[in-house]
Amino acid sequence: MSLFKIRQFWSSTCEENENFDQNSLMVASVNSQFDYIITSSHNGVLRIFKPSCESNENGIFRGFQPNDSIIEKIFDTPILQTACGKLLSGSQETHLAVLHPRLLTVYSLICKTGKTDHGNEVDLQLLYEHKLHRSAANCVVGPFGGSKNRDFICVQSLDGLLSFFEHENQVFHFNLPDFLLPGPLCYLSRNDCFIHFGSDWIIRAYRYKALSEIRDENSDPIYSKPKIFSEWDYSLGESVMDIQIINDSDNNNKETWIVILGEKNLFSLSANGRLKFMIKLGFCPLCMDSYVIESNLFTLIISETNHLLVYENTTLKWSARLEFLPISIKRAFFEQVKGALVLLSDEGRLECSYLGTEPSLFVAPPMHVQEINFDDAEKQLLELEKIIASSNSNDSRVQKNIEEELEVIVNVSAEPEICTFQHNIKNATNNYMCKVDVKLIPKITFQEIQVSIAVQRPLKVVPNIHFFSNINVASNVSSYIFLDMAADVSSLKFEIIVSVINNFGVPCTKIKSGMLPLSLVLEKCHPEKDNKHKITLVFHDASITLALLFPEFSTEEQSIFNAIGLKSASGNVGTILLAKSSEKYRLQSDNFTMLSLITEQLIIRVKKHYPNVKISFNSSLPGNEILVFVQKHFKTQQKVKEFQNLLLLFSTQFRLIQKRLISKYRTKTPISLKFLELLLNDTYSDILDVTGKLEKELENLQKIQTDLSCCLHLLNELIQLLNINDDDILNMIKSVYSTEIIDLDSQAWEDIMDVSLCFLLRTVMAKTEKDKLRAPHTCFEEIKDISKLEKHFLQVLERIPKQNFLKEMENQLDEDEPASDKLHGTDSFEDEKNETKPIGSQYGEFSSRLLSARKSLMRRHKINDLQLNEDPKDE
Amino acid sequence: MDPMYLALSLFRRRQYDKCVEICSEILEKQPLDQAVWCLKMRALTQRVYVDELESEENEIEDDFLDSNVVATAPRPGTSLKTPSSVNTNKSLGARPRTSTGRPISGVVRPSTSRCGSGLERLRTSRGSTGQSARAIRLGTAAILSQKDGPFIQVSRLNLSKYAKNKLLNKSIFEYLLYHEGDVRNAMELAVLATQACEFKDWWWKIQLAKCYIALNLVREAEQQIRSAIKQTPHIENYIRLIRIYIRIDQPLTATEVCKQALEIFPNDVSIMTELARLTEELNEPQASVKYYRNIVIQDAMNTEAIACIGMYHFYNNQPELALRYYRRLLAMGAHSAELYNNLGLCCLYSQQLDLTLACFQRALDLATDPLVKADVWYNLSYVAIAAGDVSLAIQCLNLCLCADSSHAPAFNNLAVLHHKNGKTHLAKAYLVTAKGHQPALPEPVFNLNVLQNDH
């Protein structure tokens, strides 16, 4: 974020693959009036530039000239740093010190002025060199010990050894105490102190005199660890990028700043280690340079986001964008340009720049907007507005019947295929699946169409939901239905629910049903002679051979047979026997659940041939057989509840332990949490254990649910045959024996069943008037004792064939209905909703179907639970 | 060249990945080299470092487990949690408020969540100088994979031994906290280390406070920071203390701390920013803008301050002045949908109609976030109303609702427009919806009352 951009007027780049660091750039006026730029790369190349900065006629700088580069020297070893000072005894000239990893050399820069315009001859002359015992890190040059007109060199090695050199002599070594990583080292001439940043993130000042005295006391300076007391120290609390020492010599007050660039803040200390000021930097700094103008400290900081920021003390004076990311910045005075910024990048891009004052304003990229023809646009707008207006007002069209607009064709393939989906059946014989094609032919565009296919367990559909959006052409979807468990199937019927949102945003639904082929779940086997459970059906005036009825199981060799055995995935066998020269069929099996499917299939298939056939079932309804399964279901349900309670207990315990753990964790003094951890682990394993058991029991429950559903389906089929004339009562009874077994958390199947049965017994099936007067059930209660339910169950089954229903019940029901309408004022809404069923969740639909099946029953009891699905918010 | 020097140089140049590589190479040869080990640790830490002062999630919400609450029913003006009743109606509409009733700020800060929408929302994203460090949750950093298992087995670290090593302990602490995200072990180290240095190093107190804050032990953290400040004044420490007081909902104490800090660090931008935000939250826009002006004098590139001053002028009926501030932001390169949106609104209200649509066009082009898009359309409806085109305004509001279906002010305005067209029942329905989406918004409640009194 800046208004300005830095303006470059001179630049030079080095060879490829050279590396530079912060110390690689030096700007110094080596025996000259103006500054030289000295760069030294890690690859051992030393370059000295003297930018001429000549401007042409228009006042524009000419940039880099070949003459500007005055020396380029390649060394064998990398150069870590260059420094300059009065490094030759008896000479007032400035000399150049070059630091290699194991060598310190001092050169003098000899400049011979050329006689012609061809330029000057410059050479580096080696004065002396020192071999270093340890790998060097950095060096500092200064008049140590307060010497006048003489500069000495101090080299810091990578492992913390300070070596001092007084010109050609190596004076002494000093081992820095508590040393880990080499940090910046500076010399503060005013106090004759070395400022060192230690690995413990504390700035320390060591007096040169103290260092040299310790040398005298110790015989072996390299390996001994002398005690030294720092002059002062300052805990910085963060790592340091750079330290610079600025002396304001112009003024009388002779101020000194120690400028420290930390990773997050900029600090300025006084010469005795007091904080002068600090700035919290909102960016990552890379490098800095400081100088003083009129006793104000100016600091240039380069941020990682390519910006140069100029601070005067703590105030941001300027900020400018940079073209590249430098790692070192210095200020230089040239003949033509005073105070130019010298920037050096990581890979050797060297630039001299100035802060331009002309703002480089941000220019947004141009937009691609077409020229608008206003007449056309107005016409278009009017048209669009017309469409919008008509779409909102035309509400009557919205309600149009969906039957006309969307045609749904369901096609079930007769030949089962080998199942390719994963299922839970162990034995592979019943490994078939059946393809169901649904063809959607929309007459208009629909916003969204969802096709869901519902089957009863143990069948499974993959995928069970198809979704389309913005559909207006015919399209096909196909799903596969297969057996998921080795259990008996109650019915082969399946439902396809098409939920639609048309393009006015109105939801509708359409339901279709289909029949799966028998061969999907059953296979032919040898018929059994005698079985436990038998059902005899009489088809009046209709006798068809079994071969005709079950063409898929008849073979050519055996075209006429009187018995057929059918085997399901669970291994149960059902047999259909045709009595000779009679219209009696006997269905028999050892497993009661098996009878459901074959009864259903037999009736459907006979009815196909003789649509108006009269079927009769003369024996009593199989109540006791069903009760066996009811008891089983009840027991399993109890077990599930028991495990659920146990799980509740354990998880409460777990949470308690967690809470305790947190409160322990929060205490100021950390204490051992081993015991709580033990408890936590123990409870956790308990939870896992119970969860495993619960899962197993739930699986059991599922199995029993399907078995029970088979039984109830059979019951429904048989009741259908009992010649009950009254459709209302038939529907009522059938809805009680719904094949959907649902065990909710708060309400088991038995609970609902008992209430429904009681209702039947007290109303339509009441034996005496007295029964009717008994207080009706007003709420669902949890069944604790199964025997009552069993009694009711058998009672109802007993009374159904007798048909001694009290006829006046009907009238009463009729009277009741308007009354209940008054009670629930929202019923008018409800009716609307039934027409256009909202696309609700699968669950919502599921439960509403269950509830609506019993709606007529519930009305009597005036149970307000039914209003669950309604949303009175619309009022 | 010495590989150690190279590693140090790479670390300085912020090439942490390469630095880690070289350190690993050296460590293979000399596994016990502490200096290299330390450098590698520092590089790994720096690679994932996030300044927690920038990224702190400072949610002020009711937490039933919060045991640090001072008063359950604070007096007016002493809490950031209770909505203030100050509500001045101006011709440009009241300044929008968040769903909790606080005034909406001019910038999106890491700690302000975008909940609730208001009238004419004026927001600009924070500039890049504000650092992009968004809350990477501490601890996720540890996912960054290392080739052969973790660099340091934290469970095998002898904390009591390293706590006494003052060369290593700070690096190890930062590694534990930022790289591993292991607050508990870090805290244990901090406790041992601060004992080892005899409570003389303020740095350890601050680190201890960081750990306490992470564990929600706010009062203990406050103690530590206060003690550290007594030892060494440091801007960050003051900011931490301010944040703590905001966290325990003591804005007046926080303001007090700000003023103390400004005595030691006069004109410091970061502290003044805290103070300005705080006063803004406390519903004192004049004071807040005064601080923001001071910030701009110190740091003319502070986008947050410029945006907030601009917004202040806008809601003070000086759209021309606001326009100048926003144009400055644009010149600095804040090229965002929000800014163009604000520019468009300023142009609209300062009668520079030729620029209004161009600004909004750009805002729409740049808006990718549906919420921002909804706001732009919402504001465009004002342009349409200003032009007297009610049907266009309705379309704009409908488009706004397409992008953000819970935009309560849009529902409210739609209701007003429909009411003008004579559709009272529809208006009523829209008002109820608006009230449902944002109960704190005063307009729908007021309008509903008016409608009820009419009929």
Automatic annotation (TrEMBL), chain A:
Asked whether the keyword Transmembrane is assigned, the reply is no
Q: Where is this region: Disordered?
A: 811-844
Q: Which residues form the PTHB1 platform domain?
A: 517-615
Chain ranges of the PTHB1 N-terminal domain: 1-359
Q: Point out the coiled-coil segments of this chain.
A: 367-394
What's in the keyword line of the UniProt record? Answer: Coiled coil
The residue ranges of the PTHB1 C-terminal helix bundle domain are 727-800
Domain PTHB1 GAE residue range list: 433-507
Report the leader peptide range.
none
Sequence ranges assigned to domain PTHB1 hairpin in this UniProt record: 620-722
Q: Which PANTHER family match?
A: PARATHYROID HORMONE-RESPONSIVE B1 GENE, PROTEIN PTHB1
The name of this protein is Protein PTHB1
According to its UniProt entry, this protein's organism is: Hypothenemus hampei
From TrEMBL, chain B:
Name the Gene3D superfamilies on file: Tetratricopeptide repeat domain
Region ranges (Disordered): 73-131
One Pfam family cited in the UniProt record for this chain: TPR_8
Top-rank lineage group of the source organism = Eukaryota
CDD domains xrefs: TTC8_N
SMART domains this protein is in? TPR
Q: Where is the composition biased (Polar residues)?
A: 79-102
Protein name (database record): Tetratricopeptide repeat protein 8
Taxon lineage: Eukaryota, Metazoa, Ecdysozoa, Arthropoda, Hexapoda
